[in-house]
Every structure is written in C-alpha cells, then in structure tokens.
Design a protein that fits this description.
The complex is a heterodimer of chains A (about 170) and B (about 120).
Chain A lengths: L1 H53 L6 H25 L5 H19 L12 H23 L5 H11 L14
Chain B lengths: L3 E4 H5 L15 H19 L3 E4 L8 H13 L4 H7 E4 L6 H20 L1
The chains are: A mainly alpha (about 170), B mainly alpha (about 120).
Amino acid sequence: MSLLFSGLIGALVGLAVTGGFHIWKLRRDELNARCDELCDLLLECGRTASSYWADSFVHNTKEMRVQEARILGLQALFEGLYAELKPRLNADEAESIDLLMSELIDAVSGGDFTVEDRVPDSVRTRSALQAAAEAIVAIRRAHHNTMPFARLARTYHDNRNRKLDMPRGWNCKN
Amino acid sequence: MADSTISIAENFSRYPGPRYRKDGPFSGEEFREGYLQPALSAALKDGGIVAVVLDGVAGYGSSFLEEAFGGLVRSGLSWQALQDHLRLVARTRRFEHHKVRAQSYIAEEARRLQTA
C-alpha cells in the first residue's frame, strides 16, 4: 500500500515538474516567436522607409501614398507587438528601447512625411535603417537577457575573452 | 482653474493623418489649430491644464506629432508655458514612445528657436 502511495506521489511530482517545464517552454517559444516577428517588422519598416525617403514625391504621388500607408501599417504593427513584449523585458532595458523606438518613428515617419512637394531626404534614407538596426540589436539583447542565467553566461564569456591590460615582463631586478 | 482633456482618438480621429492640412484630412496642423491652441489659450488665461490623451488611435506618423506639438512652439507658445499647462498622457504601453517623441519635439523646437 505504502509502495503504491509513494509511487503515486512520485508520479504527481513528475507530472508537476514536467507540466511546469512545458508551460515555461511554451511561453518561451511564444516569446521567441514574437521577438523574431518584431525584429523582422522593424527591418521591413526601415527598408520601406529608406526607399520612401530616397525618392522624390513629385510626379510619383500614388506610389508615395502607398508607401506611406505601408510604413504607417508596419509602424502600428511593430508598436503593438512591442507593447506585448515590453512587460517581459527588464524595466531599464525597456526604457532605453523606448527611446530607440522614439528615434525610429521619427526617422521613418517624421520630417516631411506626407508632404507632397518634399524632396528626397538623404539623412532619413540612411537613418531609417540605422535606427531600425539599433532597435533590433537592443531588443535582441534584452530578449536574450530574459533567458535564465543570461547575465551569468555573459559575464563568463566576457571574462573568458578578457585580455590583461597590465604590463607584463617587468624587470624586477632594479 | 479649469482643466480640460483632449483625447485624440475620441475628439479628433482614430486615424490621424499628414502634417499639413493641404496634404489630407485629420492633419497635425488641423489638430493644433482646431483643438490644441484654443484649449491652451483658455488654460493660459485661467491657469488650467490641458491633458492630451494619445491612446486609442491606429497609429501616428511622427510628422503629425511634430506639427501638432512642435508647432505649438513655432506658433508662439513658450516652452515654459507648455511645461506648465500641457500634459501628454499615454495610458497604455503602446503609446509611451509617442509621448517621449512628442515631448522631444517640443524641447527640440524650443532649443532651435532659442539658438536661431
């Protein structure tokens, strides 16, 4: 009887541990997928905006209006996805990502966005993609840091690759 | 002292549009001239505060935000007056970086006019 009871307890504990792990894994996979999706969107938005700013609006109104709609749609999409991801990130990292997102939306849809007689903007052509890339790197890093023991692993690898900057081969005879 | 609240989604449009009136409906210029400036003028007179709620719209082009909020400085309102009488509100996470952006447009424009 006691053998059966202890077997049952063991099975229940095993079930709880396995169930817990699977729930964690499910959430982790979902977080990974959202992060990948968000980064793809940021890059696509950066690319679309870069191409939009490289062109002149004059004689090209229809194409420009379509690109504007695409940029605004992508922007709404990545803002929504980021809002879902944000609570799972470290608060300080999320705050710095907010600043990068703010820079990004300025780069993609600021300035003379929607202004019909605007000329090509070489600064925004560059900065749209650069701002998107910066945001992606920051989001990837913050996402990585949500992994268990991420900081410990980072410290280990930093230390492993660290080179001593102290002078070596001192002549101690003097 | 009468405080007022303007919700862009509820009082203006769920789909804010371009920068200037001439480029399409629901522009930043239209919002500033039709809603923000009248409310701020009243607030400056009686010492009230205007709260602008950014949430609930489908999305903002930054040019809309620049024209609506940076444009306040260009239209003659001082940075200090805006600090005292204007509050930008983002109730949900999605609009927090828009709030950051709009505030930085006000600060940038004030700095630009100061050094010009």
